[in-house]
Amino acid sequence: MNASFTAQPSPFYAPQANEVELFQYAFHHQLPVLIKGPTGCGKTRFVRHMAAKLHLPLYTVACHDDLTATDLVGRHLLQNGDTVWCDGPLTRAVREGGICYLDEVVEARKDTTVVLHPLSDDRRELPIERTGEYLKAPDNFMLVVSYNPGYQNMFKGMKPSTRQRFVALRFDFPKPELERRIILQETGVSERLAIQLVQVAQALRRLQDHDLEESASTRLLVYCASLIGSGLPWPDACRAALAEPLSDDAATVAALMDVITAIMDA
Amino acid sequence: MEETVGKLWHTWITRAAQTGYPAARVELASLQKKIALWFHAFGGDPLLSIKAASREHWQAHRNLLARIAGVGAYGQFAWKNGQELFLPGAIALFPQRELNETLYLWLAALASSEPVAEGGWITRSQQQVMRTLECWPGLRKSYHALVQAHLALRPVPPKAVLQAAEHQIRQALLQPGSIQWDDIDPRALAPVPLWLHPLPAPSATKDHTAPPAIVAQTDQVTDITTDHRRQGKKVDHVKEDEGLLAFRLESLFSWVEFVNVDRPQEDDEELGAKTAAHDLDEFAVSKKSGTVKQRLRFDLDLPGSNYEDTVLLDGITLPEWDYRRQRLQPNHCALTLLANRDAEPMALPAHLRSAARRTRAFFAHLALNRQWLRQQPQGSEIDWDAYLNTMTAWRSGQNVAGAGLYREMRRQQRDLSCLLLADLSLSTETAVDDQYTVIDVVRDGLFLMSEALEATGDRFAIAGFSSRNRQHIRYYPIKHFSEPLTPQVRGRIQAIRPGFYTRMGAAIRYATQALEQETTGQRLLLLLSDGKPNDIDCYEGRYGIEDTRHAILTAQRKGVVPFCVTIDNRANEYLPYLFGPQHYMVVHNAAQLPARLPQLYARLTDIA
To answer: Which of A50, A148, B7, B41 yields a CA-CA distance of 20 to 30 A from B367?
Structure first.
């Protein structure tokens, strides 16, 4: 199980628009939130930040294609010859209050929707079939799910009926000025390097859908800046943290490095 | 004898006078992918297609040898318009291969910036260079390396007047922005390959499609193997014997060399026109009456008639949706199953083998994607969930049969059938680039897809279609679901060829029927298309779109998932309506279709 409960000091998060306020409104009105956006744009960081801000425990579940409703709700375990019920992350969040964050929710198996539906509408209930319990979610329980709509998959995707139960936020990569601040804040590199890296990101993002499947994320930029900040020469850092992660094709990587050089080699 | 001597002389003198370094030559075609990536990353419009620029006449001073040989009088320049980016077809200017390639990188960066509209050629070029260097400071080194190498090779003109101008150009290259002098005819000096086209920027002129005096040439010469484009020019055909305007029912476009000698009317048509086309730098197009090209027109309209194909099954009737009356017209269309007679069993074409090997390996690896199966009667691990359930039930006094208590890692069972339906209408004859037409790309796509599908173990079928009217819908079954991928199937893929029109609705309906007989849980109809539905008998515009949409909706209701892959750049106008927002993909660069298809399939059906 990939659930984790975190109560840390508020991690840095620079808002892109009004998402912080929206999230707070949603929390106060007991509405579930859906976050969509490309990989590495700050979805998980945002949820962690909001949990800390609202003083809520956060239960994160990284969904995968073998994740079933049982994994979310809980199961019986054997203890001293007896069976003992053990709550899953979702049940624990409902019992104790807090944010239950299902990352990449479309990856989870179809049967998870059965438990998510009654929780995400105004009933806010979690039926536990195995123990016959019917849990009513407290006011400080919040369901948050996220996924990346960029991947097209015909047989997997959020069902419109599920999607419709959420307040939806769309994330994108931050604007250049904001992204520069994020890099500075996260890595403490020089202003000039941050500006150059943002320019690189702008150039590489133009390639999405035409030349690359995915484009350089803010996360990759931060990785790259950290590598350069710790003394690695920029060509090596950019190759390792920007060009190579974006493509497996050697010619494409070489061309990406040409573009990166056109900005960095000043 | 004379001819042989002439040929030898030509070879010798051309070689003797040749400038440039053929050994270090880099070609646009081989760098196309890289250049496209550079151009897009530098901010160039991703919808522009990249093509070889036309060879232009250039009256710069040449040495005696060059003049005798007739070489060096041409220049190829980079420029762009609303649809295309033109770059030299090959660069062999510098002795180092890397430097020649760097010139492409430089031109891609230079062309990606917005054109400077004001000032003369030198001022504009300097500004553009400055702007590019400012945006991409990392290019400074490359630029200076190119300038040094170019200056070393630039000829010094003999005339004093031109020498002054040459000095200015050199200075402008070395220190962009330092020269405020435009009083020069660019053609008087050697071309500057580091700058864009010397004529006024396209956006500054009335004609948005091309710089002055150059009208983009049409597809007709793409079959001539060449690394440069020819200029085209529109002229009025001079008909000396005709003073009155007659009503010309059949006015046709044809290619003529504008000395008022009609090439098409020469005896040796095929060869003559082709050689003439190769020797000409400029084509004149005129509208003229005549029947000479009619044969060709008919060939285009009616490629391969029925006798070439074997009829497998005739008289399959299908309904069609009439949106005006909002009703389905039963038995409106007749579909014929055809097999191509020239299909010979064959192995995979050589140029696809390495790609096919990669694709197969990729999919074979993915197909190994294994999964834990629960509640198995035997397996490698205990299924604790099942065990606990059984134990709790047993302790509470229920009668438990010895159900499966184990977990087993097994190959994931894919429960999917896919039908690949290719549009084989005449429009697939359009050229994609100098080498390939759409049909070639579709063919390669089918080859690679069949390899990929075979590796996944999914049940799949392949078919192609075209139509001539509602009575003649031509459906070519290339592979049935239960048929293995044999050399015969490959032969049928090889034999596909363009013909007629696109009655999409009927083809989709028939394909849906085939998919309906499949018992798998998931059924995918993958349509490869290059344009809108259309046919001659009113099947166009809204009627065609609405009928196709109806066919798609019906397919969806029957549990078939339709998905469309198209290379039509304007598909965004109608495909969302036809297939729904997430159910289509536009491949902007058609040449990439064969590579993209298997990737798309992996993503669609979730094995990646």
So the answer is: A148
